[in-house]
Amino acid sequence: LTALYEKAKISNNIGLISIMTDTGFRNDGSYEYGQALRSPSHEEALKSEMENATTTARVSKQYGNRISSEAIASIERFLALCKSRGINVVGFMSPQPKEVYDTLVGQEDDFKKSFTELPVVLKTSFRNYGFDFYDLSDARQTLGANKAEFVDPLHGTDKLYLRIAIYLVSR
After folding, report:
1. 34-41: long-range contacts at Cβ-Cβ below 8 A with a sequence spacing of 24 or more?
2. What is the pLDDT of residue 64?
3. CA 20 to 30 Å from 38, out of 2, 110, 117, 124?
4. What is the number of alpha carbons within 13 Å of residue 82 lying toward its C-beta?
5. What's the CA gap between 128 and 122, in Å, rounded?
6. CB contact set of 64 (below 8 Å; sequence gap of 6+)
């Protein structure tokens, strides 16, 4: 217990597991991936996860073959509410690792069509309410990021999120 207490005094993490493993929530609400990123097998595991994620997304059609007009209407109601309350909203498409992005846009099908049209539709919706929207889906092209800046196919590292902040502030 003494060792745990000493480690807790210098840790920004919350909870016993997080303090012991450096994996879990920090006191600012962000997530520390600690051990996962420092693991020697992280790059190989990430490669496998990226291959599985893109194959699963296409095969399962989990994202559908069209943009949901109901979802866009819901976003627009949210934007209208924010505007009426004087809240500024900045939106962006989440960055994808190069391998995932290339797979998502690599085949001419309905999936690629909806994936590439979505940022255009969202940008129009955001602009209609006076807000900004950025397509950061190609992380390599827009942010200069590489696959080492991703924890898994959906989550970036602190470095990637810093790149996003710098990108947005510079606009």
Report:
1. 36/151, 37/151, 37/157
2. 64
3. 2
4. 16
5. 10
6. 114
Q: What is the pLDDT of residue 88?
A: 97
Phi, psi of 24 (to 5 degrees): 150, -165
Task: Please tell me the total number of residues recorded for the chain in this structure.
Answer: 171
pLDDT exceeds 70 at position 161: yes
Q: How far apart are CA 13 and CA 108, in angstroms?
A: 45
Task: Please give the mean pLDDT across all residues of the chain.
Answer: 83
What the block records as the tokens of 93 is: 């498409």
* Chain segment 66-121, per-residue pLDDT in tens: 889 999 999 999 999 999 999 999 999 999 888 888 887 887 877 788 889 999 99
Write the CA distances from 171 to 47, 126, 168, integer angstroms. Answer: 32, 15, 5
H or E, element range at 114: helix 110-128
For 89, half-sphere exposure in the C-beta direction (CA atoms, 13 angstrom radius) is: 23
Which tokens in the block code for residue 88? 């500024």
Residue 139 scores a pLDDT above 60? yes
